């Protein structure tokens, strides 16, 4: 499963948190847009659980789009 993430605030801090929690980030277009993958995330529920554990699921500092069809 691939997530599309747009950093709205504190981009460097958010990238560090995501990487520290095992997410792989690749630039996706603009300066603050990334695609993110995690080796154990296979569906939206597991992605949400991991983002929640990282304290990012409901953060106003980023926008998350779940893209299950873009494996």
Number of domains: 1
Name the helix and strand elements from N-terminus to C-terminus, one letter apiece: EHEEHE
Strand runs, count: 4
- In percent, how helical is the residue content? 25-40%
Mean pLDDT: 92
- End-to-end Cα distance: 5 Å
| Uncertain parts | none
Beta-strand content bin: 25-35%
Layout of helices and strands:
Blueprint: E1 2-7, H1 11-20, E2 24-27, E3 33-37, H2 44-53, E4 62-67
Antiparallel strand pairs: 1-3, 1-4, 2-3
Concise synopsis of the structure shown:
With 71 residues, the protein is of the alpha+beta class. The chain contains two helices and four strands; from the N terminus they run βαββαβ.
How would you describe this structure in keywords?
single chain; 71 residues; alpha+beta; Alpha-Beta Plaits; four-stranded antiparallel β-sheet; 2 helices; 4 strands; 28% helix; globular
Q: How would you describe the overall organization of this protein?
A:
- The chain has 71 residues and is α+β, with helices and mostly antiparallel strands.
- It has a single domain, classed as 2-Layer Sandwich (Alpha-Beta Plaits), CATH 3.30.70.
- Helices cover 28% and strands 30% of the residues.
- It is built from two helices and four strands; from the N terminus they run βαββαβ.
- It has a four-stranded antiparallel sheet with strand order 2-3-1-4, covered by helices on one side.
- The protein is globular, with a radius of gyration of 11 Å.
- The N and C termini lie close together (5 Å).
- The mean pLDDT is 92.
């Amino acid at each position: 499963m691939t997530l599309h993430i747009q950093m709205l605030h504190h981009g460097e801090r958010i990238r560090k948190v995501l990487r520290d929690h095992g997410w792989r980030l690749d630039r996706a277009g603009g300066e603050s847009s990334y695609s993110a993958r995690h080796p154990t995330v296979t569906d939206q529920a597991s992605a949400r659980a991991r983002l929640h554990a990282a304290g990012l699921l409901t953060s106003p500092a980023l926008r998350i789009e779940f893209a299950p069809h873009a494996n």
